[in-house]
Design goal:
5 helices, Rossmann fold
Length: 126
């Protein structure tokens, strides 16, 4: 099975960059531009991993993460937050909700490595 990654961000240029960088890894990439759409895509598609921006229109990424973790069908999906927000408070808050946190602009090689680690760990656990 091809790993499916849901990319959730409201900046199209950023999404295109991620799609370009991740396309060569053999992942199926799906996109949502806001929190509500992210929830529906996650419920419908059950992605292998979610890359989730914190600052989104209509429903922020932390709320999306909390909702997904309360639902049996989506609670085990690994989530990596991506955000321009910085600071220890932000990182501590995110650490309670997700597997990792990347500050924008992203360290893309490190992100690619982390995605691989989480997908490998998930496939071994299943």
């Amino acid at each position: 099975m091809v790993p499916r990654i849901l990319i959730v961000d409201d900046e199209n240029d950023f999404i295109e960059l991620l799609q370009y960088k991740l396309a060569g890894h053999g992942y199926e990439l799906v996109v949502a531009n806001d929190g509500v759409h992210a929830l529906s895509q996650a419920r419908l598609l059950k992605p292998s991993l979610i890359l989730l921006d914190i600052l989104l229109p209509d429903l922020d990424g932390i709320s999306v993460c909390e909702i997904l973790h309360r639902q049996p069908a989506t609670k085990k999906i690994p989530i990596i937050f991506m955000s321009a927000l910085t600071g220890d408070v932000t990182k501590r808050t995110v650490a309670m909700h997700a597997e990792d946190f990347f500050t924008k602009p992203l360290d893309l090689p490190r992100l690619e490595k982390r995605i691989g680690e989480l997908l490998h760990h998930k496939s071994v656990a299943e």
